[in-house]
From TrEMBL:
Residues 1-196 form the Calcineurin-like phosphoesterase domain. The gene is prpE. It comes from Thalassobacillus devorans. This is Bis(5'-nucleosyl)-tetraphosphatase PrpE [asymmetrical].
Length: 245
């Protein structure tokens, strides 16, 4: 299986469509299809902060659930939106407020459809995706080798949020261990979650969240070719989001 893993989209629908064109996909009835049968895999955080989160939900749902032409794993923003749709009390900040504002501007019929589609996408997708044919594991914030094949609360927290210590930096960001430095596995771990200016390769891991929503670029990692393909962002550049990469 040849796969194209797409980094954190965060509501940047135009850039996502441009990336598909750059990767050689052709739209058929609104769904990107590759002439060589390549499979796109979304790395989570398809919504929040960007200009068209609802459009991204529709687009990804159509690819993954309706036509079964792609795969998806959730990110922490996906988890929070799912809990919002469940009716749980969640704080509408850190980007969720942009998605909920879009959602509330829809008709009641459209709201029902979007809520159903996103919840179905979330519920029927794996926490992380093992792709033996590509010798890869795809997980939103990464995964330790000992966690592969496992489920449970610890694994879930790691996959959605990274290797957090429970402490916080002065600006409120969680302190995370650099788990990739300790990774010794032979499988590729492809992840995102933390914005970097350029894809970060450490051992057999790569972070492909190149901060599209913060004005940098949207990136895909192709396997088995180990090739990076990116398109420039159309969003304003936010320098401080990249100061620690």
């Amino acid at each position: 299986m040849k796969i194209d893993i797409i980094g954190d989209v965060h509501g940047c629908l135009d850039e996502m469509k441009e990336l598909f064109r750059e990767l050689g996909y052709v739209e058929e009835d609104g769904v990107p299809v590759h002439p060589e049968g390549r499979v796109p895999v979304f790395l989570g955080d398809i919504t929040d902060r960007g200009p068209d989160s609802i459009g991204c939900i529709r687009y990804v749902y159509n690819i993954v659930m309706e036509t079964r032409k792609g795969k998806y794993v959730p990110g922490n923003h996906c988890n929070k939106l799912y809990r919002f749709f469940l009716g749980n009390k969640v704080q509408e900040k850190h980007g969720l407020e942009t998605t909920t504002a879009e959602y509330r501007s829809l008709s009641s019929k459209e709201q029902k459809e979007i809520r159903h589609h996103f919840m179905k996408l979330y519920e029927e997708s794996p926490l992380y995706l093992e792709v033996p044919e590509a010798n890869a594991v795809i997980a939103h914030a990464g995964i330790k080798e000992s966690f592969i094949g496992q489920q449970g609360k610890k694994v879930r927290t790691f996959v959605l949020y990274g290797d957090i210590t429970g402490e916080k930096h002065d600006d409120g960001r969680p302190v995370r261990r650099d788990w990739a430095q300790m990774y010794e596995g032979s499988r590729w771990i492809v992840y995102g979650h933390t914005p970097v200016r350029e894809p970060r390769f450490v051992n057999n891991t790569v972070n492909i969240d190149t901060g599209c929503v913060f004005g940098n670029k949207l990136t895909a990692f192709r396997l088995p070719e180990k090739e990076i393909v990116s398109v420039p962002s159309r969003q304003p550049y936010v320098e401080e989001k990249f100061r620690l990469d």
